[in-house]
Amino acid sequence: MQQRQKWPIRWDLLVRYRFIETLVLWEGRLTTRHLCETFGIGRQQASKDINTYLREIGPGNLAYDKYLKGYKPSATFQPRVTRGLADEYLHLMARNNELSNVFESLALNVANVEVLSVPVRDVAPQTLRPIMQAARQQCRLEVDYVSINNPDREGRIIVPHTVVFTGLRWHVRAWCEKNQGYRDFVLSRFRDTPEILDASPHGVEGDDEWNSHVTIRLVADPRLRPEQQAVVRADYGMQDGVLQIETRGKLVPYALRLLHIDPRAPRRGPEAQQIVVENLDALKPWLDF
After folding, report:
1. Which end of the chain is more exposed for a tag (fewer CB within 10 A), N or C?
2. Which conformational region is residue 52 in: left (phi greater than 0), alpha (psi within -120 to 50 degrees), or beta?
């Protein structure tokens, strides 16, 4: 009988070490309080975790800053138990400090399961940190940004309020002083280090499209035979023949793309489409037509 291979690091400690690396790299500050509040441990255990990390996992990775009253990444920081990707931090924040995504990223030896992942559009720490800080403090941010329509760097001043994952990429929702309105900016298209400026009155409260809540109603394609529609309803867990998805008005197009529904395209055959939007007319204000 093959002997079971032991973990080099106990799994619960590995999760905490990954949290330490992720937070200090992308927020630039780590305290025992972060560990206490996230994992429900005492200050003494949190301090022990940090010291053990420094001694055994990432010697020299953390530097204590008395002004920050916490640890910051050292100039020689090298990820040891993470990949050092912005995606790790952003998913951690998106899950509202629930560590399910960290568990998913552990290299568990589980057979018979394969997960298809999309290419990561990475963001440099020095780019993401000020964006997150400005969002939390509602500050103006001077950035260099490129786009498909304008591939040359363009200086802009934005006021970010929320980072969003669309299922394929990350963007930040922000007030744009150039356009005098709220816009979506792809994180991987920022260049260099954004500069935090002064406070702004344009916070999340003024973003009407963001604050509007919408329900998408999905039903089985009526062109399918009744027995086929029954299969589709079971696939999607529909209640009374309808699947309701609650989202923000501005996120409606992203939600439909994840479902492979393009209201502008000619309708595909019913076996390919399988589901349709029942309340498309109500969603038109949020679509690009």
Report:
1. N
2. alpha
Q: What is the spatial distance between Cα 235 and Cα 226, in angstroms, rounded to a whole number?
A: 14
Query: Using CA atoms, how far apart are residues 175 and 184, in angstroms rounded to an integer?
Result: 9
Cα angle at 178 between 131 and 264, to 5 degrees?
90
Q: To which residue do tokens 């935090």 refer? A: 196
| DSSP secondary structure letter of residue 239 | B
H or E, element range at 211: helix 208-211
pLDDT (tens digit per residue) in 203-231: 999 999 999 999 999 999 999 999 999 99
Pairwise CA distance, residues 50 & 62, whole Å: 9
Q: Map tokens 């007030």 to a residue.
A: 175
The CA dihedral of 70, 76, 82, 87, to the nearest 10 degrees, is: 80
The two tokens of residue 213 are 């809540």
CA angle (146 as vertex; 141, 148 as ends), nearest 5: 140
pLDDT digits (tens, 9 = 90+) for 100-150: 444 454 444 445 556 566 676 778 888 888 999 899 899 999 999 998 888
Place of tokens 């001043």: 157
What is the distance, to the nearest Å, from the Cα of residue 224 to the centroid of all Cα atoms in its chain?
36
Cα-to-chain-centroid distance, residue 212? 20
Distance CA 161, CA 173 (A): 6
DSSP label at residue 56: I
- Is the entire prediction scored with pTM above 0.85? no
Distance CA 249, CA 39 (A): 34
